[in-house]
Amino acid sequence: DNAASAEGLAAALSADGCDARYVLSGVDALHAIDRWVPHVVILDISMPEHDGFATARVLRRISPTRNAGIIAFTALGEDYVRSKGLHAGFDGYCQKGNAPGVLVDLISRMVQVH
């Protein structure tokens, strides 16, 4: 939901060899699936239109992303996100503010599983 942060994260992931793209809302994420299907989706929870939980639930229901890894990337506390996120379909959690390597390692593990 923050253009500068999203662009910076995409640039950091691209520098680590990921084909990273970003959008700024849950609705935009769902529309982006028509043009590009990711192996891993990184969602903030506090997004406009559809929050991360609602977006994850939809991503789990549609064929192109049903088996994609979905990571909650948020400033919200891990206990709160995990309690609600398991029902929404999240596979992992990464606290905003961690070094980018933490997220890259989580993505790498998910790509190997999926």
How would you characterize the overall build of this protein?
By secondary structure, this protein is α/β, with parallel strands linked by helices. Helix content is 48%, strand content 12%. The chain is built from five helices and three strands; from the N terminus they run ααβαβαβα. The protein has helices at residues 3-15, 26-32, 52-61, 78-88, 100-113, and strands at residues 40-43, 69-74, 92-95. The protein has a three-stranded parallel β-sheet with strand order 1-2-3, sandwiched between helices. Helix 2 runs parallel beside helix 3 and helix 3 runs parallel beside helix 4. The mean pLDDT is 89.
The helix-and-strand class reads: alpha/beta
- Number of strand segments: 3
Query: What sequence of helices (H) and strands (E) makes up the elements?
Result: HHEHEHEH
| Poorly predicted runs | none
Q: Supply the number of helical segments.
A: 5
Share of residues in helices: 40-55%
Q: How confident is the prediction overall: mean pLDDT?
A: 89
Largest sheet: 3 strands, parallel
Rg (CA only) = 13 Å
Strands of the widest sheet, in order across it, are 1-2-3
Strand residue percentage: 5-15%
What overall geometry do the principal axes of the alpha carbons give? Answer: globular
The first-to-last residue Cα distance is 27 Å
What is the secondary structure topology, with strand pairs?
Elements: H1 3-15, H2 26-32, E1 40-43, H3 52-61, E2 69-74, H4 78-88, E3 92-95, H5 100-113
Parallel strand pairs: 1-2, 2-3
Helix pairs in contact: 2-3, 3-4
